[in-house]
Amino acid sequence: MNEDLHLGQGARYSVMVLVFFVTYTLAQIPSNATVRRIGTRWVISSLILAWGIVSIGFGLTTSWKQLVALRLVRGLFEGGSFPSIIFLMSTWYVRYELQKRYAGYYLLGITASAFSGILAYGLTQMDVVGGMEGWRWIFIMEGILTCIVAVLAYIFLLEFPDREAQTQPRWGRLGEVECQFTLHRLSQDRGDASLEPFSPRAFLRSDLKLKTWALATLFLAVTAVAYSMAYFLPIILHNGMGFGVAASQCLVAPPYAFAAIFMFTGAWEGDKYRIRGPIIIFNSILAIVGLAIVGLAMMGYAASSGAQYTGVFFVAAGVNASIPAIMAYQANNIRGQWNRAFASASLIGFGGIGGIVGGVAFQPSSAPRYIPGIWTPIALMLLVISVVLALTVFFLVQNRRADRQGVVLEGFDGFRYTI
């Protein structure tokens, strides 16, 4: 692909990676406002279908400029679908059921990352089949699978609980009793089951709350490290650890498989004990340890490729396990459906900015040590720990005021922030 589209010239590869996140970030907030007003099935399935069609287009590009243009368009569709799904999930479950659900959803992405390298290696063996290079088949097959997911989403995806029972009869539709049961649980948990009328003021209310941006900053930092790992792990395995191209593609899978198990275990514990911050801090420390191992090995203090690879396991587990934890942390401490719509869109939007940071962390010019690419994620993980500690102090103080002085938090008597 690099040779066919001349991506190795100048900063073309970095431009191709980064432009995606411009439209990805801009699409978040309008998407959540739209999906709440129009409905989930048409909006989300249409976005996923368009995303799949654009992915097929990747396999038909003949120049790097076409690829950049398609990356911009894909960012628009992918950026619209992800926060909408996260927002939808938050309206169906009470606060201490969310992290497991978010982890299950993100588990799909982890699984894809785990086996994408192996799949990519297999599809590259289709080189010249149909007169097309193997890398083109990777994008075409990815696009076809995404289009199939879009059709399944239209068939099976639920609406918001306050309107699901009113949708057209279809297989799997929930009835009035199930929806009312869900709404009752949500009202008991956080008192925001009913949707208030839309207004720009109601939608943008979370814009004025510092905790909204603090939580979004957490997501930015964690996703920056996650994206840098996803983009450059095969390169690090090949250039930094000396594995062959085929081995590097296949060795991507085990760290992500381990991360999936670690992530779901942490999510289960987080929901069981109703904690978020301590889990995020533990995950960040684990990632720092892993980054330190990889960095020291690259600087020559540990020559073993096995030591570096062990560090990769720690980084993958710590970073990816923090993503659903932060999503649940945000959902647990934001009340009101329009507030939640804006806050979840802002969270995922900052994740797009994290993608930009992650895309420039590992520069080819810093090979084979990649020192800036190691220190940048370490600094971001330290930022995560600092912000979580600050939020923990704030939430503890506010909860104590509510307990001792009867202060009503988030406009709902009995609401307490999740630590």
Automatic annotation (TrEMBL):
Q: Which organism is it from?
A: Penicillium cosmopolitanum
Q: Which domain of life is it from?
A: Eukaryota
Localization per Swiss-Prot or TrEMBL: Membrane
**Membrane-spanning segments:** 12-30, 42-60, 72-93, 105-123, 135-157, 213-237, 243-268, 280-303, 309-329, 341-362, 374-397
Q: Name one GO cellular component term.
A: membrane
**Could you tell me which residue ranges the Major facilitator superfamily (MFS) profile domain spans?**
1-401
**Any idea what this protein is called?**
Major facilitator superfamily (MFS) profile domain-containing protein
Kindly give the membrane topology term recorded for this protein. Multi-pass membrane protein
Signal sequence interval, chain numbering: none
What Gene Ontology molecular function terms does this protein carry? transmembrane transporter activity
Give the SUPFAM superfamilies listed for this entry: MFS general substrate transporter (SSF103473)
Q: Which UniProt keywords apply?
A: Membrane, Transmembrane, Transmembrane helix, Transport
